[in-house]
């Protein structure tokens, strides 16, 4: 019996090689036309909700379309600047026949990738200048610099308004899963019951923690009777004991303070993110696995997590360090926190 092998489609091949760069034989191909259409709707919504830079309230992931265009510019630059790469030499000799890529026109049998590279000419024509016989990149502010992919990305991407709370969530030392849940909660993007109510208006939904009303971001963090007990016990161990029982207000309050390596700045942010994470985890455990913990036990989980995080810090002795050690039932020995 003869086995048949299915050849990969052109769309798959193009999408697989679009990210290859360096001195590779393959240029930075764009996604195929079908691939672009498939991601266009989701990407437009995603970019509005989650900007690429963390300082703009995003997750720090580059949008595929904008990054793809930036890499296409790299190929275009290699061709008209006559860079010493195999692919650019082939394009100039065989495809352009010694002509300029700025004068090249589409042909019926041109590949999709080549057409997209030519389309990038209109986007960068105001950024390309000749300085002392060599090509340079003109930034948005008018200054002229050497070409770099990073600078092209900065000038071509869509800039968004910076947020003041990014340092409350994104900082060294915070566990990624805590930062991710905290980020979603800050943006009100967690799937809480107030959102599900619009999908299933006929189904009665109650907060799994207090069983009195629908849960929502403001309810879960920390206006629910259950979560408010957790937050009340935990914030007694913070220097900012007057923090409110609303996550939005807490984030706004913390965003005012500049982020430094002060021990209280670190502990405060660790505690807020940990409370959000462990309350959300308890909510899901009750809802999907029918497992329950008392508020006191969830509070203990938060405290144990913070104490283990403190063990990883190297700190010098000070009054603030001694205060933190006292509040969290620890001691300071040789620039490290230790369990009592």
Describe this structure in words.
The model is unreliable at 1-34 (pLDDT under 50). A hairpin with a 2-residue loop joins strand 1 and strand 2. The longest helix has 27 residues, at 263-289. Helices cover 52% and strands 6% of the residues. The protein contains 15 helices and 5 strands. It has 2 domains: 10-127, no CATH class; 166-339, no CATH class. The strands form 2 sheets. It has a 3-stranded antiparallel sheet, with no helix packed on it. The chain has a two-stranded antiparallel ribbon with strand order 4-5. The termini are far apart. It is mainly alpha-helical.
Task: List key phrases describing it.
340 residues; mainly alpha; three-stranded antiparallel β-sheet; two-stranded antiparallel ribbon; 15 helices; 52% helix; elongated; disordered N terminus
Task: Summarize the topology.
Elements: H1 10-17, H2 33-49, H3 64-80, H4 86-95, H5 112-124, E1 128-131, E2 134-138, E3 144-145, H6 149-156, H7 166-169, H8 176-186, H9 193-199, H10 217-223, H11 225-235, H12 247-256, H13 263-289, H14 295-311, H15 319-327, E4 330-333, E5 336-339
Antiparallel strand pairs: 1-2, 2-3, 4-5
For the largest sheet, list the strands in their spatial order.
1-2-3
* Portion of residues within helices: 40-55%
Total beta-strand segments = 5
Look at the helices and sheets and give the structural class: mainly alpha
Q: How are helices and strands ordered from N to C? A: HHHHHEEEHHHHHHHHHHEE
Strand count, sense and closure of the main sheet? 3 strands, antiparallel
Count of the domains: 2
> Count of helical segments?
15
Tell me, briefly, the overall form.
elongated
First-last Cα distance? 72 Å
Strand content: 5-15%
Low-confidence stretches: 1-34
Radius of gyration: 27 Å
Average pLDDT metric: 84
